[in-house]
Amino acid sequence: MRFIAAYTMRGRYQALVAICGLAIASLLIPPLSLFSSALYALVVLRKGSGEGAWVLLFALLALGAGSALQTGNPAQGISYGLLLFAPSWPVAVVLRESRSLTLAMETALGMGLCVVLGVYAVVSDPAALWRENMQLFLQALSQNAPEDFDPVKFGNAMDIFSHYLTGTVVGGSLLSLILGLFIARWLQANLYNPGGFGREFSQLRLHKPVVYLGLAFISAGLLLKEGNLAEIAWNLNGVFLVLFILAGFSILHAVLLGRKGFLTFVIYLAIFFILIMLKWLLLLVAFLGISDPWLDWRKVPKRS
């Protein structure tokens, strides 16, 4: 990946080749979209907002032309490029100008919250729209489902889940956006400031007003319990949860940063697999991120 990043930094043409190449490849291997957006964010971080805007424009033209040749519809390629690259531009600009991962993440959070509120402002019943789309998925699934598959139970579960899908989808998109930014910052450090990203990430701490706002929406969801306002609050909470978890991981990284050797590697692996198997532990990680502005978990003594 370092070689591709160095190639991207050689010039505008090289950046377009690398970014668009990975974007096209991501249609077959979806995780590559993360690295494509990371390379674009790297261009903005290193060369500025103006160069980032030019690269975005030419990337959209290239993807649109490729889509026109393949399907006859350039809008598909342009739309995909906008979804992939456009959100990275403002957060990368904020990170470049402020040199603060926290501020960049909080900018991404604000964008996510605006999307959730925008959906509820434009669509009268987002849950009904999700249910309509999931019915098509359920019909396709029923045709190739195992014998013990119960479409009624699945449909009931989807009916409940549909009320929170807006926040889930936006939260997933926010996670991809921030991870792409992290990869870009790591690549930048790898090329120009070895070890810089680890130190920067370990110092990540959310600002208190942001945490207060998140706690306010959690309280609103718990107090209102039912109704449209409660649904909006819980969808907003899904977006906040992403930021809280990432802030919690920063604390875990900071606590382990002073440890060296094989034991540290084992600890990282253990944490990773435990969180995968016991997803509720992510709430504990989120708690670390929420409480850190007051408790400063990085003061935990490190043993050699």
UniProtKB/TrEMBL annotation:
The keyword Ubl conjugation does not apply. It comes from the Bacteria. Keywords: Membrane, Transmembrane, Transmembrane helix. This is DUF2232 domain-containing protein. It comes from Candidatus Methylumidiphilus alinenensis. The chain crosses the membrane at residues 15-45, 52-71, 77-95, 102-123, 161-184, 205-224, 236-258, 265-290.
